[in-house]
Amino acid sequence: MKRIIFFIPAVFCFSFLLQAQENIENRFSVDFSYSLTALVNHGWGVGLGYEIYLLDCLSVKGGLGHMTVMTGIDEVYNTSVGVSLFINYFPFNNIFDNFYFSAGGGCDFMNYFGDGELPPTKQDTLIHVIPKIGWKFHVLNYLILDVSAGYKFIIYNTQNYYDVQKYINPGFQFGIGIKFLFRTFINEVL
């Protein structure tokens, strides 16, 4: 858990430095998959994403999420922090409205707590890899819809893996993301 305390501020500092670059288009997004997974498991969650475009056909996207949910054990809760990094390739050289391939992965750091009978391992680290495909298109000048599908492979897990499968959602992934372009929005409003 100490690693996370130092990692989270570093990620935010890095994202603010990238946002300061005027000549590169950056996209901030809210990831509702943490919220939906948490609601299904009687909890709450939130996720954030940040994408930076390096070339006309290449982007890098990082994500950070948190959720706290009830487990199947009475009075035992699970809180998790997820960190991810993806590289997106746009074969038709149009990063704003086009088809893309993506590969990446991440870590889920999980902690069990509560008054019930805690699992033998109170902290878990799960590492996953996700190849996916998707399509991005503008809804408004400052709003982009991102439809994607992929498959989440768990490549490292610990003793509690079978208890947490419903929280980390391994297997087929389908998502619809909403990307908000702050710079474009501010330029249109001001």
What distinguishing features does this structure have?
Porin; alpha+beta; elongated; 8-stranded antiparallel beta barrel; disordered N terminus; 22% helix
Account of the 3D structure:
With 190 residues, this protein is of the alpha+beta class. It has one domain: Beta Barrel (Porin), CATH 2.40.160.20. The chain is built from four helices and eight strands, in the order αβαββββββαβα.
Topology as H/E string?
Answer: HEHEEEEEEHEH
Looking at the structure, what is the overall shape? elongated
Query: What is the CATH top level name?
Result: Mainly Beta
CATH architecture type: Beta Barrel
Low-pLDDT ranges: 1-7, 9-23
- Radius of gyration, in Å, reads 18 Å
Quick one: biggest sheet?
8 strands, antiparallel, barrel
Q: Note the quaternary state here.
A: single chain
If helices are DSSP runs of H or I spanning 4 or more residues, what is the number of helices? 4
Number of domains: 1
* Strand coverage percent: over 45%
Strand order of the largest sheet: 1-2-3-4-5-6-7-8
